[in-house]
Design a protein that fits this description.
The protein folds into 4 domains: 2-129, Response regulator (Rossmann fold); 132-287, Alpha-Beta Plaits, CATH 3.30.70.270; 301-400; 404-515, Orthogonal Bundle (Arc Repressor Mutant, subunit A), CATH 1.10.10.60. It is α/β, with parallel strands linked by helices. The chain is 53% helix and 12% strand. It has 21 helices and 11 strands. A hairpin with a 2-residue loop joins strand 7 (207-214) and strand 8 (217-224). Helix 4 (88-96) runs antiparallel to helix 12 (337-359), helix 11 runs antiparallel to helix 13 and helix 15 (426-432) crosses helix 16 (437-448). The protein is globular.
Length: 515
Amino acid sequence: MMNLLIVDDEPVICEGLQKTIAWEDIGVAVVGIASNGREAIEIIKEHPIDIVLTDVSMPEMDGLALAEYLSDEHDHINIIMFSGYDEFEYARQSFRLGVEDYLLKPVNIDELIALVSRIKQDKDMQQSRQHDHTQDSNPTIAHWIRHVIFQKNVDQTSFPTWVHDYHFRVLVTEMTDYYLSSEDSQSDWKSLWTAYLESSPSLTHTESFIVENHLNELITVFFEKSSNTADNDAIKQLCQDFDNNNVAKLKHGLSSCASGLSHIHYQYQKARDILDHIRHDNKLVEIFHQQAEPKILQIPNNTVLQLQIAILNGDKQTLSETSTQLFEYFQKEALSVNNVFKSLREMEIILLSNIDDLMKKRSKLTLQLQGEPDLKIYNSYQAMEYLLLIDLNVLVSERNQPNKRNWIIHQALQYMETHYQKDIKAQQVAEDHFITPNHFSVLFKQETGKSFSECLNAIRINKASDLLLTTSNRVFEIAEFVGYSEYKYFVKVFKNHKGVTPTHFRALHADTIEN
């Protein structure tokens, strides 16, 4: 079980979050409630805490001060922070403190449960790696690498003496634009890299070991009994040779060389950092060097204003042009993909606040950048712009059709009414509207109360009912006409909707045809 602490100065909110959610069902236990940051710290000193769910605005010690304390003293604790629309400045500050998970009031319970479940899953996976053990009485260096690479604080006394003779480099690798690649490419790139590494003659004095960590991340640990820095160039050349000889396009972050296993977690983190730093440019591989503090850019006010006016006017051309200019600005400032994401999410909070104030309404929208997009999957400027344009189109449809259903779902329903006889797929409809299939499914369910297939079946069965009452065509002919290639399946669906078989339905209404 993961331990959760709730921090809010409003007892009603604390009680509601504690009692209305079945935390045990997702493997979480609420072990305490605090009314401010100071009380929270006292509880944390007494009990092991994994996740802190905290409000921003509280007396004595607010959520930002609590987050700062936790990042310094208990960085293993995940922080979920929430506040109102009018407190978007807090969101900007919380991102700088390392708070990645930020929810807007009123808190969407389903979104909160999904977020906590994801955090628990990540922690479970990490613990599983950390507790990896072997029955081998003489474990290999590969065992020790796997055992410690994800651990921040390592007990060096547990290492066998021979481990200290080795020097290590860590290479973190991912496929560029993973979200755009085919399923075959997504599944093949790791095996291609592994095979290439095993067959390469360029690292004759260096051994390697691969650790899998994510769908789109491989960790290659190079180790040797010398600290020859020339091997940096050999590893970089290896990456270049792979790029020249394979369709899969990869990017790599390489740590500096360090002796002993005690530094390997730090090397892994730095290799990830440098990979994030080069995701936006044409570099194939980069070795870690001391970086300046990452830029925290506030998007220019005139850009936010342009987007705001375009959303209110439904001007999609201006939205597209402004988005292009915005990413040119990111490119000029050499902003990492991770910080682009933070800047865009902050900008959306401001947009939502400004537009809702103008229209005197508060709306709950499913926005891609306000969720938790996986930045190893959406790992380029192109991917970030793709998600931004999805969100901007959602905002346009919401603001300019306040009394109608979402324009994407409205068009989808019109298409289904017209083309119900064809083999319609939800995925194709989603792609035609530049929206992810998962987002389309969620949006469709929210707008109609039904799934795509349920709605399509309802349209087809209504059409079939009309034909049964107004024509003398045979039932199997009507089934084929309305889009069902399998007669038995048509009868089953029809009975589910009408309570009787098509033949019985026609018999019950026989006088309708006669008249």
